Amino acid sequence: MTLYPDFSQVEADPFTLNLGKYEQYMEEKRPFFVEGSEVFRFRSNPYSFGFGPSINPFYSRRIGKALSSEVVVPLIFGLKGFYKSRGFEGGLLTALTGDALYVYDSGDTLREEKALYNVISFRKQFSGNSNLGFIYSGKATQSNIAENHAIGVNFHYFVQSTELTGTFSSSLYENHIGNAFAFHVATLEETHHFMFSFMNIDSLYNVSEIGFTPWVGLRRLSILVGPNFEINGEKLQYASFSVGYNNKAEAYEGMKSQNFVFFHSSLNYRDGAGIEFHFSGGREYINNYMNNYEIDVDGWSSPNGRLELNGGVGFEKGYNYYRDYEGLMVSHRTRLKIHGDSRYDLELNLRGWLEFDPSSKLEEYTLSILPRFQYAVNKDLLVNIYGQYAKLILSKETESKKVNLLVSYNFKPKSWIYLVISKDFASDSPHGKPLQGVFKIRYLFYF
Fold first, then answer.
1. Domain positions in the chain
2. CATH number, span 322-447
3. Which InterPro entries does the annotation name (predicted)?
4. What's the rounded Cα separation, in Å, for the pair 103 and 388?
5. Strand 344-356 to strand 325-339: parallel, antiparallel, or no bridges (unpaired)?
6. Which of 64, 82, 401, 422 could bridge across to 75 with cysteines, CB 3.0–4.6 Å?
7. What's the rounded Cα separation, in Å, for the pair 359 and 165?
């Protein structure tokens, strides 16, 4: 149970630049929602391996969401309960949020009225890893008790190394009922892998207030197949290759058929290092047909137990929805983590996005830097210092410049004290925004 928590400064979201048409998924970091979140997870993709869009009738980030970088819908009350027995688990979540109002520079307003959220989820385990799941999620406001509601059922059935997955969900939004359906067949053997996937989400399916399924009006068929190799070499341990075909149509684009082919490879070494390569290309429809291709390379290495290094680079020739034109988009990412002795960790994340206009001229280079230092005073007391710096290099505009101090003390099992001090320097005033602080106690009651 939680009463009037203030999660706004406990853990900030990393800066990201979204150049696509769909909303980006952000991980849940608020302690109340993270605890036991697996019970409320509705997995529509196979456990074996899965990719592409999924159907999510519940997304906890909708509760107490941010209307802007400065205005967050307050969470007044939250209650969770769990039940587990042999082969069965279930959960109940209810939350009450307050009013919030954001005023744009133009004078227009965005208002969120007081709302009640309810979620019920359960999963029944059968032989092996096979299971059957159900979820209900709903949001009711003072003016509309039927603001947004959804139900979903899914199953995962294993026959030796083959997994069959089926999902059906129905939503109610603005007095319209919409449906979503997905079916997958996935086989993962030592020597090969295969997946067939079909998904249909009609244009009336809408869980925008309670879930995360932004790709409404989507019909998608995918096939993937390839060999796996166990290698007894001195360095290389495992290799995997995949080829596939993807056909999709979107109501957003008039249900025009779009065809893509893709290739994926993965190499894993005995020292823990690895590299992945992905290519996809085809004809995308946005007002008219245009060529689209993506190339992505990722690598990781851990030369010793104290150093982790991973990074990658991606190239996409397609439609830039942020700029509203077709062009080349390049991204790079690097993560370095140093494990000190048992007391400290040092981490640095560096990300960048380069946008080119239709004439291949560099439009903008956006850079994001996230350093983090963690020190364990003892096994129960942790001190974190982390920051975020994001800047548009060519425009010379600072998007984010923050420094945060988080002290967390685990004084009893699953009971914590949090102290957060945050300073935001990215403001119109010379010294940025005033210093902010949050003190929070989280206590587990046994009964």
1. 20-195, 322-447
2. 2.40.160.40
3. DUF5916
4. 26
5. antiparallel
6. 64
7. 45
Listed residue (435, 442, 403, 405) closest to 420, CA to CA: 405
pTM of the prediction?
A: 0.87
For residue 37, count CB atoms less than 10 angstroms from its CB and return exposed for 0-12, middle for 13-18, buried for 19 or more. middle
pLDDT 10s per residue in the chain (447 long)?
A: 666 665 554 566 788 899 998 899 988 888 788 888 889 998 888 877 766 788 999 999 999 988 877 788 989 989 999 998 888 999 999 999 999 888 887 778 888 999 999 999 999 998 878 999 999 999 999 899 999 999 999 999 998 899 999 999 999 999 999 999 999 999 999 999 999 999 999 999 999 999 999 988 999 999 999 999 998 778 899 999 999 999 999 987 778 999 999 999 999 998 889 999 999 999 999 889 999 999 999 999 988 878 999 999 999 999 999 999 999 999 999 999 998 877 899 999 999 999 999 999 999 999 999 999 999 999 999 999 999 999 999 999 998 898 999 999 999 887 888 888 888 887 655 666 778 888 888 777 665
User: Comparing C-alpha atoms, which of 249, 295, 297 is closest to residue 275?
Assistant: 297
Q: How far apart are CA 434 and CA 119, in angstroms?
A: 37
Q: What are the beta bridge partners of residue 225?
A: 194, 243
- Cα–Cα distance for residue pair 186/161, rounded to 1 Å: 8
Question: What is the structure's pLDDT at 271?
Answer: 86
What phi, psi does 253 have (nearest 5°)? -110, 25
SS3 labels along the chain:
CEECCCCCCCCCCCCCCCCCCCCCCCCCCCHHHHCCHHHHCCCCCCCCCCCCCCCCCCCHHHCCCECCCCCECCEEEEEEEEEEECCEEEEEEEEEECCEEEECCCCCEEEECCEEEEEEEEEEECCCCCEEEEEEEEEEECCCCCCEEEEEEEEEEEECCEEEEEEEEEEEECCEEEEEEEEEEEEECCCEEEEEEEEEECCCCCCCCCCCCCCCCEEEEEEEEEEEEECCCCCEEEEEEEEEEEEEEEHHHCCCCEEEEEEEEEEEECCCCEEEEEEEEEEEEECEEEEEEEEEEEEEEEEECCEEEEEEEEEEEEEECCCCEEEEEEEEEEEEEEECCCCEEEEEEEEEEEEECCCCCEEEEEEEEEEEEEEECCCCEEEEEEEEEEEECCCCEEEEEEEEEEEEEEEECCEEEEEEEEEECCCCCCCCCCCEEEEEEECCCCC
Q: Which of 168, 164, 181, 266 is nearest to 221 (CA)?
A: 181
